[in-house]
Design a protein that fits this description.
alpha/beta; Rossmann fold; 2 domains; 6-stranded parallel beta sheet; 20 helices
Length: 472
Amino acid sequence: MNILFAASEARPFIASGGLADVIGALPKALLGAGCDCRVILPLYSDIPDKFRAEMKQEAVFKTWLGWRNLYCGLFSMKHNGVTFYFIDNEYYFKRSGIYGYFDDGERFAYFSMAVLEAIKHMDFEPDVIHCHDWQTGLIPTFKNLFYSDEEKIRKAKTVFTIHNIQYQGNYDMYFAADVLGIPENRRGMVEYDGRCNYMKAAIDQCDAISTVSPTYANEIQDPWFAWGLDRLLRDRTYKLSGILNGIDVESYDPCSDGDIPQTFSKYDLSGKAKCKEELQKELGLNVDPNAMIIGMVGRLVSHKGLDLVRAVCDRILEMPVQIAILGSGESAFEGFFRYMQEKYPGRVSFVCGFIPPLARRIYAGSDVFLMPSKSEPCGLAQMISLRYGTVPIVRETGGLKDSIKDVGGIKGNGFTFQTYNADDMLDAIHRAHNLYCDKEKWEGTVLNALSCDFSWGRSAREYINLYESILK
């Protein structure tokens, strides 16, 4: 089975979030399961020169977009056994970063058209074109509308994965004519509530829709979570499924991670205690083996549930705990955590920014990992923390609900709370601390965390089943 992933980012080439982790890891897992899975990305100027030096030019051709006749270069290279293609156009992609430009709608419409045109120049015939998020949302529409006479493209099936429904590629309807070149009698393919909506077009025109956890697949049919697309998705539940993401267990491995002070495993936990001690020293926390460290790593934005933390932070610190936070985002939250660090020296540490090696040391050195998200399509941090024997405390939403089961039940691997309520979150932290004080039971919980399997192999098998279902 031949699968072509189309996406706007992928590790290790360029990344801004969890999408890049998925595109960097899932194709390798599919390759290991017997598929020929390849990836196509924009050739951004920020892609490091060491990768550019390995690329070879496959083709140079023209593609159109509305009234525009545009250059396109196709480059390729192999990484970890996976073939990656890159679409070159300096007008659109020779810029710093990935997103945030006034013409993002045009840039990624061009990319979507260029992906289809590039297939004609590949020595590869995809059975499935797997599109990810709004930046590639026009591929199924362009395929159905403009490539019905191209046998190599026409017979390919399309899958569209929603990684975060909040970001939809939503523009004025003039885009449909001026930018996308869609005939007037076919503009309903992209129109939703009077706007040109790339994600709506993908949901409507693809053969199958997936999202990054089973619970999120249900949640996005609810107006609370769907950002206006709930009725569209409820009408298309027959082709919607949720497949939980995985993590790269080779990269996140406490047995071999070079970024943590001492490696450890479920057979020898002594290294985890050393990681905790060194983390306390590094972050200026009191070196106290009995203080339960609460770790937090991620973007400091409201939907991550940080208003709950802010509401009861003083009450959390009435317990003998320490808090280690790494992240950046909204100034209100950055300012709050700076204030708490000053108010509780030696007990609260806040590092503003994102430092991947430090993130790993927080995963490894903390005792619990707090994720009280208002919404969380999948979440990777809770899986990574389990990989390092750090017990998650999460709200039951999206992938957090699918991956974390409360220790009060069978095979529990964390602490959960249901309602979006600060007191309920505080209760979960209290329950975690009570168990932490029972060292024998706590060690059993840590060992259970270390035994959890969130490798991409499980997810890859589910995606293969999805591909086979639409190819039949």
